[in-house]
Amino acid sequence: MPELTGGHAVVEALKREKVDTVFGLIGSATMEIFDALYDAKEIKYIGVRDERTGTHMADGYARASGKTGVMLAGQNGPGATNLVTGLAQAKAAFSPVLAIAGAVSSSHLYRDAFQEVDQQALFTPITKKTWTISQTARIPEMFREAFRVSQTGRKGPVVLNIPRDVLSNIHNFEDFTAPEHYRSKAVIAGDPALIERAAQLLASAKKPLIIGGAGLKWGRAQDKGLKLAEALNCPIATSAGHGDAVSSSHPLYAGQVGPRGNAVATNLAREADVILALGTRLGFNSTFYSYENLNRNAKIIHVDIEPTAVGRYFPVEIGIVGDAGAVAEQLLSALKGMKLQQVEAEWVEVFKAQRKALLEERERLASDRSHPIKPDVIFGALRRVLPEDVIVTLDAGTLCLQATDKLNFVKSPALITPLDFGLVGFSYAAGLGAKAACPDRTVVSLMGDGGFGMTMSEIGTAVTAGLNTVCIVMNNGCWGAEKAYQRDFFDGRYIGADVPNPRYDAVAELFGAKGFRVEKAEDVEKTIIDALECGKPAIVDVQVDPAALYSFRRDSFQHRAKK
Question: How far, in Å, CA of 48 to CA of 457, rounded?
Fold first, then answer.
């Protein structure tokens, strides 16, 4: 390699990692990187309006593509601190994001320099790992390490802080070794003895249940989970926020378990005698860490790629460390040589009947033509009109949480949520990132009006970059979840709950996008179709019933519940 500035070495490192998209916000601290990107025609640069939302885009890109999403914060100090919320979200979702942050010059460190903040200390708790590059010569090494760590085992976000002088210094680089020489491509399989025991336990079960999680989804092992369910003739549910871990069109699909899921799937978890937790932590949003949504007497086979996750929240009969897809294949192979105990016919038949009744009830609710518009009308329209290739992104808040289990997910990954972090303002930007990763797939983002108000400046990014997603703003004029708590537990003493909004369809038009407004239930479906077909970034402002609120975290207010 010829002599390069540190900034040009960064871009060369990105090329070696086959990065095709960088999200960023320009700033003086990393000008050498931006200058190098100018000539890097194989990398698409997408300029964002805020570092937080840019990190959500990198997160959505990573989850949709499986590759590491890259966000470049051009400014140290405030540019870096704006990354915090997005990185904390990515860590909660185990999403492989690389944030590159400028830092003050090495000679100015610890002198209260302009825009100085201890970025190493700032990012360490909210990333898988954070580094500050101290020498220009080490840029190739540190980038190899950052990409490796983001993708190894349980994935997660990483940060590289790069001081200004490290970027501006010139070095004769000789160490641009191909990154693949530093990577393991091995898939972690389960211990054969434990696989045999687990297969025997599953073979003897009368009421088996598989709960598939993100491990199936991120490992692109959807079909492997379904084949195992078919072999056992047992229902397969999913963990909260991962309703796309397997195809919702399969007759054994039960939907999501727990407080964020549906009653049918949750009752299966309450009654199963053997539960195979396949690539899920059985974490908070699926269980609330209690036996309220899980059979205390069930024998749990827990499979996770992260050793510390196995048996962390519930005692397990068998704990297997391994890739969810690989373990599913191992179990399927082991079961072929075994005589399966006949699964109780009633176990599957009752489940299918209850699932059918649940879906019919959802369609009944979706046919409501009363005014104002009920959220279920929107969900029903989406079930009818969205193509099988759709990627849906959700926000936090009461309206989006109601949608979590009520849509169809066929081609995984198809659902991207902020569920574990509960972040309002995530969905729209994450959808833009998913569209950048998968330009041929349909991307629909659901948001409340409050969350969209936080992030609507990214309409400009969508228009500039040609990211033609459809964002449906369920506009009820309030912070819905909090207003529900004030209604249900604080005697309707509302403060700070109502949100005056502009017409978001008009805002979209001002940015150069396409805006739609819906005030009648009978117009919802046609308007969504028009938005999908308009050929532009589209914002659909739907006037939703402000009384259609639900207190999801009732457990937090039990001390205030009326007797």
Answer: 9
Within 8 A by CB and 6+ apart from 298, the residues are 269, 272, 273, 274, 275
Residue that the structure tokens 């309206």 belong to: 399
Residue 100 contacts residue 79 (beta carbons within 8 Å): no
Tens digits of per-residue pLDDT, 12-38?
Answer: 999 999 999 999 999 999 999 999 999
Q: Taking the domains of the chain in order of start, what are their residue ranges?
A: 3-182, 192-350, 367-555
Phi then psi for 404, rounded to 5 degrees? -50, -45
Q: For 123-171, write each residue's pLDDT tens digit.
A: 999 999 999 999 999 999 999 999 999 999 999 999 999 999 999 999 9
Nearest CA-CA partner of 530 in 393, 381, 415, 413: 381
Amino acid found at 185: K
| Nearest-angstrom CA–CA distance, 265 and 549 | 23
For 442-485, the DSSP string reads -EEEEEEHHHHHHHGGGHHHHHHHT---EEEEEE-SB-HHHHHH
Q: Which CATH number describes the domain made up of 192-350?
A: 3.40.50.1220
- Please state whether beta strands 3-5 and 170-172 pair in parallel, antiparallel, or not at all (unpaired): antiparallel
pTM of the model: 0.95
Q: Is 371 exposed, middle or buried (0-12, 13-18, 19+ CB in 10 A)?
A: exposed
The CATH number corresponding to 3-182 among 3.40.50.970, 3.40.50.1010, 3.40.50.2300, 3.10.450.50 equals 3.40.50.970
Q: Which of 503, 495, 508 has its CA nearest to residue 460?
A: 508
Give the E-state strand segments of 93-177 in sequence order.
97-103, 129-132, 158-163, 170-172
For residue 317, the tally of other CB atoms under 10 A from its CB is 15
User: 458: how many CB neighbours lie within 10 A of its CB?
Assistant: 26
With DSSP H G I counted as helix, E B as strand and the rest as coil, what are the percentages for the chain, rounded to 5? 45, 15, 40
Class of domain 367-555: alpha beta
Q: Which of 254, 244, 314 is nearest to 284 (CA)?
A: 314
Per-residue pLDDT, averaged over 297-308, amounts to 97
